[in-house]
Amino acid sequence: MTRICVEFLYLEDIWPTARFLIQRFKDNQEVGDFSEKDNHVQSLLAYSAEHWPSHLREACLYQDDSVVSRILAFYQVDSKLYHLWFPIFWRATRPYDTLPEMSGIRLGGLLSHENILELTLRGKEYRDIDESDKDGRTALIWASECGHEKVIQMLVDTGADVNAQGGYYCNALYAASARGHERVGQILVDVRADVNAQGGDHLKWLRRSSFACPS
User: Fold this and answer.
1) Are residues 29 and 74 in the same domain?
2) Is residue 152 domain-shared with residue 73, that is, in the same domain?
3) Are residues 94 and 178 in the same domain?
4) Cα 100 from chain centroid?
5) Domain that holds residue 202
6) Quick check: 10 and 3 in contact, CB under 8 A?
7) Per-residue pLDDT of the chain (215 residues; tens, 9 = 90+)
8) Which among 69, 84, 99 is the end of a domain?
9) Do 43 and 71 belong to one domain?
10) What CA–CA distance (Å, rounded) separates 132 from 139?
11) What are the CA-CA distances from residue 11 to residues 81, 85, 197 (Å)?
């Protein structure tokens, strides 16, 4: 399914349909009427954009698999492919949230693709593991909010700052606690995340949680 979704999104013939959907989303309008053929294209387009990340997480592909090199283009946030699939994915998964500003590494934190993130961290376009968006969200904060334990461990092992401040939840630990990811919270505490950092409403939840500080 990963290959089917990825290769379908590469078809330039479907890109006008994608642009039409995205513009409708931006205008907060209904999608509108399609012919029967267009409806099939639209449905597969929406499915592929929304579900290729989860199919990839389940596929456990090796880095030398040909589809991995194809997917790297989806992580290039200045590419046409990214600007076609990501807005549709975001609308489907977080319809009430503003489209975020992404980079390859922050996308890795959000999507939890260890193989792709490892290649991204090694790539020439990689700059700073703690690089944040305009709202202050880092890759580690995204991964913590989404509960991606393996990616969090990878980011921490690579040198991510566990106490970097930013985003709605203020830092990675509060993001994990607010979303109920206690295992993630414990991982962060084990690597010296500051449980006493100032962080607003989510601080109360954190202090009531079962996270244990390392001795």
Assistant:
1) yes
2) no
3) no
4) 10
5) 101-215
6) no
7) 999 999 999 999 999 888 888 887 776 655 444 444 457 788 899 999 999 999 998 887 766 678 888 999 999 999 999 999 999 999 999 988 889 999 999 999 999 999 899 888 887 666 789 999 988 899 999 999 999 999 999 999 999 999 998 888 889 998 998 888 989 999 999 998 888 776 544 454 455 554 443 33
8) 99
9) yes
10) 7
11) 10, 12, 48
- Distance separating alpha carbons of residues 32 and 50, to the nearest angstrom: 20
Asked if residue 43 and residue 66 are part of one domain, the reply reads yes
One-letter identity of residue 102: M
- Contact of 201 with 167, CB cutoff 8 Å: no
| Structure-block tokens of residue 112 | 């939890």
**Of 78, 99, 120, the domain-final residue:** 99
- Amino acid letter, residue 25: F
Nearest CA to 133 among 153, 149, 154, 109? 109
* Cα distance between residue 26 and residue 109, in whole Å: 25
Question: pTM for the whole thing?
Answer: 0.82
- Give the position of tokens 């078809």: 11
**Integer CA distances (angstroms), 111 to 12, 67, 86, 190, in order:** 24, 16, 11, 23
Task: Provide the number of structural domains found in the chain.
Answer: 2
